[in-house]
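REVIEWER CHECKLIST
Item 1: Sequence provided? yes
Item 2: Single chain? yes
Item 3: Sequence as submitted:
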Amino acid sequence: MQTQRTSNLLPWLLGAAALLAVLWLLDRLSAVLAPFITAAVLAYILDPLVDRLQEKGLSRTAALLLVMLSGFFTVLGLLLIVVPMLISQAQALATRLPVLVDFIQHSALPWLNQTLGTSISIDSQGWRAALADNAAGVRQALTRLAPQLGHGGALLLHTVTNLALLPVLLYYFLHGWDDMVARVATLVPRRWHAQVGKLAGEVDDMLGQFLRGQLSVMLIMALIYGGGLASTGLDSGLAIGIVAGLLVFIPYLGAFTGLLLATLSALLQFGSLGGLLLVWGVFACGQLLESFVVTPRLVGERIGLSPMTVIFALMAFGELLGFAGVLLALPLSAITVILGRHLIRHYFNSSFYQRRIDP
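Item 4: Structure as written out by the authors:
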């Protein structure tokens, strides 16, 4: 009986040891592994689409090249739309900042003080004087920062190298994905094959639904926010909406970032409460649609990765492993959730839990 218990616990102990070893290795090699992990995550997301194209009669190479080129031109198109609009918005903010300060001082604050009975005020002249007084300190800080530009150049070169390496790695990952999965499966001892296969299937089901469903949510919300803000007449509304939609992958960050940018743009452009309410209405409708229609239908609640879990995982693994940890946060969280469920079930079925004390 004792031997059987030890045999049942051995896969769990080995799995925990392997997971700790992988985390340690990732911590030591996080900077080097970042493009490989990015390519592996993208390959995991795109592999079902490549398989479907193969079923339509395309070769594996033709299918993955079609998927990669489609993704590349989609990202390029988004960049060509979003980046110029954001640059123009930043330039408009720089030139119209005095108008914004004047609106806050002579319109927004008097209305707020009258409504709430407060006496808030700002001294725009004092702000300008403070900026002038600190100009010398800013110049000194920039002088001290100059020796670090060499390191910044090396970091930029490293980033560009990783971006150039990513398509090559993605091609090889996608080309041999099924073979890699099969080879990993052959390493599992035969007596554990059924149990490990069941766990892997549950992890794949949870993670696949979450990642692919969340990708669909991002695209739909980018269209909703972008189209809604553009319909209000807001300059750069399309770009702000796309950014807000793509950031919904991190719960609440997309809506908060988009609302902040859109509010600032509306204040600069419209200068009235009516225009501001239109922008806020777009985000209110978007949040309602995302919370009660889009996310429940495409992602669902049964996956087990709540918004709090996602936020904690991204922050915790990002702190531990850097950018590589952010990429691995959701896969490792899914594995942890599945293992935790099985361990709890094993604990409830154990004689230790079920044993009662005789009266």
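Item 5: Key structural point noted by reviewer: Confidence is low (pLDDT under 50) at residues 148-152.
Item 6: Recommendation: ____
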